[in-house]
Design goal:
The protein is mostly beta strands. It contains nine helices and 42 strands. The longest helix is centred in the N-terminal third of the chain and has 20 residues.
Length: about 700
Amino acid sequence: MSLSPGTRLGPYEIVAPLGAGGMGEVYRAKDTKLNRDVAIKVLPESFALDADRVARFTREAQVLASLNHPNIAAIYGIEESHVRGSTSGVRALVMELVDGEDLSAQIARGPMPLAEALPIATQMADALEAAHDQGIVHRDLKPQNVKLRGDGTVKVLDFGLAKAIDAAGTSSDALMNSPTMTARATQMGMVIGTAAYMSPEQAKGRAVDRRADIWAFGVVLMEMLTGRQVFGGDTVSEVMASVMKDEPDWSQLPATLPPSIGRLLRRCLDKDPRKRLSAIGDARFELTDTGHAPAASATTAPARPRRWPLALAAVGGAAAATIAFVLIAPALGPAPAREPSRVSVLGPSGVTLMFDSAESAISPDGRTLVFATADPNGSTRLWVRPLASTEARVLPGTEAGHLAFWSPDSRNIGFFTDDKLKRIAIDGGPVAVLCEAKDGRGGAWGANNVIVFAPANAGPLMQVAATGGTPAPATTLDAARGETSHRFPSFLPDGRHFVFASLPAKNQKFDLFLGALDGTRSGPIASSESAAVYADPGYLIFSSANVLVAQHVDVATAKLSGEPVTLGDAPGSQGGTYTSSPPLSASRTGTLAYLGDGFAPTSLRWLDRAGRNAGTLTVPEGRYQEIAMSPDGTRVAVTRFSSQNTADLWIADVARGGATRFTSAPGGNVEAVWSPDGKRIAFASDRGGPRDFFVKPASG
């Protein structure tokens, strides 16, 4: 039955209809107790006539309500009310209200650029993985069930409702997976999977598992990239016949599609579920291993974030021990498109480049790059490389130097050592000590010759004259917000204001603020996966959903405005050394410098006592950065990073090889330690905000 505005279901007051489908009508409602907007899905009226179904639905809904993930629309509860005009009462699901358009509206506007499609696909995969880890299969994944919020967050809706509303006992037989598709569908008027997104086994009425969701994920991803329906037909029967018999038209995919994405699509869309990708978590690693993405297009659909032309200078590393920098000259202001230009900026022979984009900085005039290297003994120093030159030269006196930053005139460099903040002229000369800095976390040199810097890994930002002196506070930690650190400032052109990141992370994002030299600061202006940098004319650049975006900043109102600009194929995070470090540096000319190939896979190798290679432990491809051997030597706990702020623990079998995922909570799950008996593993995680410690049975 339809509900009119003002109708009350317990504490919920109906505001307006949102839509209707096979699984019920959906309304916007007001929670009068908690004063929040919610979505109410009113189930078919005949549902209440079957007591067994009501009981089973309640049990299933309780399981679904246990899903707690930032990319899954939450279920708040079940409401049962008697409403005038209803003979059997009304049963409804109370759900999180997600504003924004659904993915089908985006697809309808045409093919999506890879840089826009991948963040959406990655968040969809994260949502599916969280549900699959709890034994919940969506069964009806399609673009209409994927909502896109304005802040870039993806929310997957209606997890498991097909099973929850199904008749008792049919979840394991053909009825649950029936290909019968009518206006009201099988039995209770629900559609068990929209035909175009049903897996072949689902279309045949066979039992389904998480591999049906993986199929649907592949279909949705291919439609994002092509703007076309993968399996079509004039009738439901024809669509389902196409699903069961036809191969996708692979020629519709962009010619510049990275091989890893093509490989992922083929594995997701294998008609034999035994050959299909077995775990959606593996898709995330393919999505982040794109190798190179297509250059940004100069034209896009009007409703999507704007994308400006880029002139790229991409760099490839010559060896695993060498990390390269990528330089881009983006037109963030109105300018004609420029052809990409590419140069190599590799580390000097015998040293390796420091693995963090904060360890490199392009000069304000866009002519010179400074970067830090480490020798085989771990000793660091600074080098400069004019872009017009093919050679880099070391800066004498910068031993132990790192996290360099430029003076506004591009003639001097500030940098940190183990316990000091220092400066040096790039043309040579003595190194000057400016002040104490025990464990620096970024600095910025303003136009008024004041340096704002983070002297330690905890605490506020400080300011000091560029000639040296006694530092004074530039910011104050907000205890009410639970702040522990301010870091990685970046000055705006006025020389007074600067943007900085605040720790700890919240939902794997850092709040960004505008500060001023008088000690005042704004409220949060954005949440990002990294610190931000300023780039002319009037933009902040930061990581969002694992890609780089630029958005206009209004200093007067301390707010971001306008649509975000996606920066082509620039990586949004690198998984480097410093928490919240910025993913790039910017010059006044528009040239950006960032770390290239920063998230390449690593391998696990055995070394003998002499340091010689003694073999490789076979594990799924990924970036592994931490290792902990079990007391009996049969297993290895490794940390596998999927982005700068996201990592999970995996357990590898020493004798047989292979690895299984041990953690699945969002955020960084790191630093595994085995108990002496090998039965438990302790680890650190920031899943709830500030990092905390957890203990879990080693059996999983």
